[in-house]
Amino acid sequence: MKIKILLVEDDTSLGFVISDQLKSDGYQVTLCTDGAEGFKRFNEEKFHLCIFDVMMPKKDGFSLARDIRKINTEIPILFLTAKSMTEDKVEGFKAGGDDYLTKPFSVEELQLRLAALLKRVNIIVAKEDDSILTIGQYVFDTVNFTLKHLSFEKTLTKKEAQILKILMKFKNQVVAREVVLNGVWGQDDYFVGRSLDVFITKLRKYLKEDESIQILNIHGIGFKLEIS
Fold first, then answer.
1. Cα Rg of the chain (Å, integer)
2. Which residues span the domain enclosing 171?
3. What is residue 195's predicted lDDT score, i.e. its pLDDT?
4. How far lies 110's CA from each of 9, 53, 106, 124, in Å?
5. DSSP letter at 116?
6. Does residue 68 contact residue 60 with C-beta atoms inside 8 Å?
7. CATH code of the domain containing 191
8. SS (HEC) of the chain
9. Which residues partner with 148 through β-bridges?
10. What is the Cα–Cα distance from 114 to 154, expressed in whole angstroms?
11. What is the dihedral sign for C-alpha 64, 67, 69, 72?
């Protein structure tokens, strides 16, 4: 199984060049052109390493890294930037970055930085089947979007499945409302916020067969999928 890299770069030409090089080096690469799209893809797939441009539309690299760190504190993050100022590097590390690469850079430097990051976290790529999740008395198939109980079976919509998957990442923890909104819709304005509330109500209905499961509203923060 190949190491999967999430590459988010708004310069499409540079993005394709980096992506092609990494693929030829044996990595599996997902290329996104803005931070909002990158965060959505991060929530949809499992990655081993992230490469983020700093200056991007919709969501810059630092903001994207901060959102990623709310979900995953371990995954290595490498920033790409045209700036070399110390204060920018400091901000990058504070945002959760592990390393910094200033444009223009050589292929060899990129390869060495990636190898060092992967070695530092001692990533072991193994075949893991995280497509089937147990939620109390339910079985959630995240690939086929099915939610099964002894007395209940439901095929979820894509957004219902994405929301439930994010809640499961934070099982028995509070997940910020904006993390769910950005992860599913790529934005967190009022209208998608109302849609989220509708989807949460539907998920509560689907999960009512097991009294040990609750989706709690945490006022002013977000939600908590509580399984007792």
1. 19
2. 132-227
3. 92
4. 15, 13, 6, 20
5. H
6. no
7. 1.10.10.10
8. CCCEEEEECCCHHHHHHHHHHHHHCCCEEEEECCHHHHHHHHHHCCCCEEEEECCCCCCCHHHHHHHHHHHCCCCCEEEEECCCCHHHHHHHHHCCCCEEEECCCCHHHHHHHHHHHHHHCCCCCCCCCCCEEEECCEEEECCCCEEEECCEEEECCHHHHHHHHHHHHCCCCEEEHHHHHHHHCCCCCHHHHHHHHHHHHHHHHHCCCCCCEEEEEECCCEEEEEEC
9. 139, 153
10. 42
11. negative
> What is the band of 86 on the pLDDT scale with cuts at 50, 70, 90?
low
Structure tokens belonging to residue 174: 């509070």
**Which token pair is 194?**
């109302």
- How many domains does the chain fold into? 2
Token duo for residue 209: 């067969």
CA distance 162 to 123: 26
What is residue 204's predicted lDDT score, i.e. its pLDDT? 95
Q: Are residues 12 and 74 in the same domain?
A: yes
Is there a domain that residue 125 lies in? no
Evaluate whether residue 11 is within a structural domain.
yes
pLDDT by residue (tens digit) across 172-213? 988 888 888 888 887 777 788 899 999 999 999 999 999 999
pLDDT digits (tens, 9 = 90+) for 12-38: 889 999 999 999 888 999 999 999 999
| Whether residues 9 and 99 fall in one domain | yes
- 10 and 90 in a single domain? The answer is yes
Report the CATH number at residue 98: 3.40.50.2300
